[in-house]
């Protein structure tokens, strides 16, 4: 049975969707706002996230961005009344996988859910940048074919950087990806980034992990480097 989470503040619509998906043998949990939905995403595992754009407390784009920053690659189907190209492009930049414009037919919703779940199951779940490869299914990391040994914290940091590469990730976003809403002491991130650099860069001629002055960190090759990083 497929498992989905619906984050939707329209309770009538949410009730209709949950009941229909149950008939279609698709489990559907429900949250009525962004923070509550993020809590359920942390606690469970879902095949597809059904995400309303206009949510109270944190909108759908914010929820999607927070999930991608955490390294969560659950397929996201955005439900919205906005159907302009700019709206869709903004959603795709935030990490949305597909759009369904309200009002929609429930049969089409089911078809989109199955398509997203099938697409995910058929993917080789890998993140790549330069000669660095993270296999999410096998939980391995290699660089130039050489296996790297990472701590659990190092893994989460590298996954977050890989998903953004070559763009920079802020210090705050990295801390949230690893420690959630309980930030560590000011020295913890520095220590873990030092250890990550030793694993990813020290054995190789070209460094990939760079500090972006006044902002955060990034994975970049020499071709991507800018003067504000080291």
Automatic annotation (TrEMBL):
Q: Which residues form the Response regulatory domain?
A: 3-117
SMART domains cross-referenced by the UniProt entry: REC, Trans_reg_C
Gene Ontology terms describing biological process? regulation of DNA-templated transcription
Does the keyword section mention Phosphoprotein?
yes
User: GO molecular function, one example?
Assistant: transcription cis-regulatory region binding
Q: Which UniProt keywords apply?
A: DNA-binding, Phosphoprotein, Transcription, Transcription regulation, Two-component regulatory system
Task: Name the CDD domains for this protein.
Answer: REC_OmpR_PmrA-like, trans_reg_C
A single Gene Ontology CC term? protein-DNA complex
Where would I find the OmpR/PhoB-type domain in this sequence?
124-221
What's the short name of a Pfam family annotated to this entry?
A: Trans_reg_C
- What is this protein's name? Response regulator MprA
Gene behind this chain?
A: mprA_2
